[in-house]
Specification:
The chain is mainly α. The protein has 2 domains: 104 residues, no CATH class; 76 residues, no CATH class. The chain contains 8 helices and 2 strands; from the N terminus they run H-H-H-H-H-H-H-E-H-E. The protein is elongated and about 80 Å long. The chain starts with a helix and ends with a strand.
């Protein structure tokens, strides 16, 4: 974020962005409300406990783009307010602050999602998860059709990161529970409290 503030500052020093400033602030303000009109109605409409993946993407992208735009605009505002003789000192301070933030944020190459997923694939975590999910679904076939099935949380495969996990609720009327019950021919299915 500090890099975008610095970038906005340096761009303003080279070129005047005064006319675009109000438009940038309006788009940033609208960007903050993008999740409200795109993701939340869909998530709430499913009556689920989790936000669907496509909604997570909209949430993440709108937050990231809005934050970068606001950081860039902040850099422009700083450049407008700073006197000419202080500009080099401000650039130096923002560069040092950005460097310190990058060094101390605790985020390294091992935390990049592609690296995490590759490591999990090499370690066989996804393969093990697949087979445990397959066994879970096969175990559901052993229950009597038309019955009210109550399963224990311990029967579920262990959740892993970076993938969609099995989500059933205590509430048998939740849409996922209803869909699973219809598929297997159960009257209802729920998780033991």
């Amino acid at each position: 974020m500090m890099l975008f503030v610095l970038f906005g500052y340096l761009v303003f020093v080279k070129r005047d962005f005064t006319g675009n400033l109000k438009i940038r602030l309006v788009f940033s303000f609208l960007g903050i409300f993008t999740p409200v009109v795109t993701a939340f109605p869909l998530a709430l409409g499913y009556s689920g406990i989790n936000v669907p993946n496509r909604c997570e993407f909209v949430l993440d992208m709108s937050i990231i783009i809005t934050a970068f735009n606001l950081a860039f605009t902040l850099g422009i505002l700083i450049a407008k307010r700073i006197k000419e003789q202080l500009k080099e000192i401000v650039v130096l301070i923002m560069t040092v602050a950005a460097s310190v933030c990058l060094m101390l944020d605790g985020f390294g190459a091992q935390d990049i999602k592609i690296t995490e997923i590759s490591k999990e694939l090499q370690d066989g975590i996804y393969e093990d998860h697949y087979y445990s999910c397959k066994e879970f679904y096969k175990s559901l076939e052993t229950y009597e059709k038309g019955s009210d099935v109550i399963i224990s949380k311990e029967d579920f495969p262990t959740d892993i990161e970076n993938t969609q996990n099995i989500i059933l609720s205590k509430d048998p009327t939740m849409w996922i529970n209803t869909a699973v019950a219809q598929y297997y021919g159960f009257h209802t299915i729920s998780v033991l409290k």
